[in-house]
Amino acid sequence: MDKTMTLFLLLSTLLLTTSLAKDLCHKDDKTTLLKIKKSLNNPYHLASWDPETDCCSWYCLECGDATVNHRVTSLIIQDGEISGQIPPEVGDLPYLTSLIFRKLTNLTGHIQPTIAKLKNLTFLRLSWTNLTGPVPEFLSQLKNLEYIDLSFNDLSGSIPSSLSSLRKLEYLELSRNKLTGPIPESFGTFSGKVPSLFLSHNQLSGTIPKSLGNPDFYRIDLSRNKLQGDASILFGAKKTTWIVDISRNMFQFDLSKVKLAKTLNNLDMNHNGITGSIPAEWSKAYFQLLNVSYNRLCGRIPKGEYIQRFDSYSFFHNKCLCGAPLPSCK
Predict the structure, then answer these.
(1) pTM (2 d.p.)
(2) Which residue intervals of 231-273 are DSSP H helices?
(3) Whole-angstrom Cα distance, residue 19 to residue 176?
(4) Do residues 45 and 81 lie in contact, with contact meaning Cβ atoms separated by under 8 Å?
């Protein structure tokens, strides 16, 4: 090999090494991330956030490709010993599409208002923390949101009706908080897709809006609240519902008239004031979970391959329900 070729190979190797060592991270994002780390008291969980290294190689985040100039697109901080509040600097990551603060029991304060600046955000999960305050109205300004999970916090106040204006929303999870007031009437008229809706384990009250019978919810969980009224509006033979949980409320309606979607798989309505009898058509339903206990039902339990799979726990403590797995009808 002549000297010219040797020199060429050396220069090529040097250029390749220099290219690989290049810091892909945008300088503005690196500055912002280091401010976030400082705001969280420089936790060990973020030890990889070294200013001397490429921030796109740091843990708890992801950078986009060259089409977005390798800007930070995901911030995922979870399962760590982190104290403090959500840093306001999270709003200074303009290319963020996914923001997660999860299972951080020492994370306190309100949901950070600067999140409203993240116009590209599609996925927001702030769960299993000690966040307080209201579900913020500004979430409705984030028009690209597809997924919202604010469960397992200490949020209070009412549910913003403006959330129904999010046309791309597919999943709304507000369970396990201290939310009060009624379900917004607007949740019967979502602007775009009908999201899976989870509002369980709160302190919601009032009558279920009649408008809630209009959407075809795939999954809806209203359990463990103080809701009243006719929840039979959630059902319908032409719907494509998979899961309905209305247990432990104060709903009152005649079950005899309820028509189920053929797709319904999980149905829990225990601990309400539901009257009537179990429709004979239910004998053909393919239930993986069924619980109608602690109501005011009467009559014979229909016989069917799937309905007979459940033990007395699914049917007991009704007014005069009878037949297997309960005692025989007289």
Answers:
(1) 0.91
(2) none
(3) 49
(4) yes
